[in-house]
Specification:
Helix content: 10-25%
Shape: globular
Order of helices and strands: EEEEEEHEEEH
Number of domains: 1
CATH superfamily: Nucleoside Triphosphate Pyrophosphohydrolase
CATH class: Alpha Beta
Strand content: 35-45%
CATH topology: Nucleoside Triphosphate Pyrophosphohydrolase
Distance between the termini: 37 Å
CATH architecture: Alpha-Beta Complex
Largest sheet: 7 strands, mixed
Number of helices: 2
Number of strands: 9
Length: 149
């Protein structure tokens, strides 16, 4: 939580904004494995991270994907917003903007301080739900339901 004081008022706690990317290509999804020192370390996740000051959510998702995967991407559309204050495995009550993005190719390397591995997985052969960070497994299931139903 972020603690702020507004215009001489009482201090209050605010929620963080994060962005995540669904990168799907030919029925495969690009996942990261989070660095061990991070919350949910060693677990699989969608590439993403915090929205920085002075950037849009779309700029943030493009930046985060590059940092965490080395892939250049183009935002296609907003998939969903998750604002549930009781998201599983969270300690900050993040509000997540999940974008569908298209890969434009690998142009760099991932940041090893944040990511252990980057790998494409068949949407029908994902790691187990227990191996995923946060609620990212559920987000992928919702994507599959929307586009394969």
């Amino acid at each position: 939580m972020i603690t702020c004081q507004f215009e001489k008022g009482p201090k209050t706690s605010l929620r963080h904004v994060v962005v995540d990317a669904l990168i799907i290509d030919e029925n495969k999804i690009l996942l990261i494995k989070r660095a061990e020192h991070l919350i949910n370390g060693g677990k699989y996740a969608l590439p993403g991270g915090y929205l920085d000051r002075d950037e849009t959510a779309q700029q943030a998702v493009v930046r985060e994907v590059m940092e965490e995967t080395g892939y250049k991407v183009k935002v296609e559309k907003l998939f969903t917003i998750i604002d549930n204050p009781n998201r599983p495995q969270e300690d900050r009550q993040n509000v997540a903007f999940i974008y569908e993005v298209r890969s434009l190719g690998k142009v760099g390397e991932h940041d090893p301080s944040e990511v252990l591995d980057v790998k494409w997985y068949d949407l029908e052969k994902l790691p187990s739900k227990a191996d995923f960070a946060f609620d990212h497994f559920q987000t992928i299931l919702e994507y599959k339901k929307k586009y394969t139903a």
